[in-house]
Amino acid sequence: xxxxxxxxxxxxxxxxxxxxxxxxxxxxxxxxxxxxxxxxxxxxxxxxxxxxxxxxxxxxxxxxxxxxxxxxxxxxxxxxxxxxxxxxxxxxxxxxxxxxxxxxxxxxxxxxxxxxxxxxxxxxxxxxxxxxxxxxxxxxxxxxxxxxxxxxxxxxxxxxxxxxxxxxxxxxxxxxxxxxxxxxxxxxxxxxxxxxxxxxxxxxxxxxxxxxxxxxxxxxxxxxxxxxxxxxxxxxxxxxxxxxxxxxxxxxxxxxxxxxxxxxxxxxxxxxxxxxxxxxxxxxxxxxxxxxxxxxxxxxx
Length: 301
Known about the structure:
The protein has helices spanning 2-14, 17-23, 28-42, 58-86, 98-115, 167-173, 222-230, 240-248, 278-292; strands at residues 47-49, 54-56, 90-97, 119-126, 139-143, 152-157, 161-165, 187-190, 199-204, 207-212, 215-219, 236-239, 253-255, 266-270. Helix 5 (98-115) links the parallel strand 3 (90-97) and strand 4. The chain has a 5-stranded mixed sheet with strand order 4-3-5-14-6, covered by helices on one side. It has a 3-stranded antiparallel sheet with strand order 12-7-13. Helix content is 41%, strand content 24%. With 301 residues, the chain is an alpha/beta fold.
């Protein structure tokens, strides 16, 4: 439809079908036929033809006024959408895990909003990963494996996981020297997503062992489980990103560090690399730069 509008605006400007045909790389008969088809569709005569020039009818003048306004609106719309690609503005929807979103991403979002005041931020936190595409979310920041192969992933932080316990617990129950001894210990289980309950996998020298541990206490909230470990209720798995502060203050001790657990690297996920709006690109760069400055260096002793 907009091509017909552009055609008619050109016709009104040149007042000559041959000139319009040359500009649009059409034959003169094709240009004439196009005008005829428009008039047949509308059921009115838009222009009076002579051998030398064209004059618009009153209906043609009305059509021209509307066509000019519509084309201007289309141009404004295209410019506005294109600017979203180049200028950081508009609504940016972010998803993050519940605890990490509260503790870390909320402060990052605050700093980002101060730097980019034209971007409207919507930070959603949830226990489980969400479908970014179905929920119209621009990107997500989460620990662990890619939840959807349709997404693009950018690693923000390498993040190993370790067994740990408080000195209070170890003084009372002793420190395990092999993973097999975990069967004699109280373990705190953090249920995440759909992971098998109490199944811990350890790798050493390229050999993986799977253990079913006894859950003294269980929670689907990592911060609750961490609080129980600090209170001396048992042994738990925690990522080094969270462990640093507690190891440094000797409130937790890392156990059996030579046995590797599946890592919980931090990733930023988004639906596509193609035609990313500026608001998404600048947020990705902003967050990646911040996390590059805080790679963990966990003390194991």
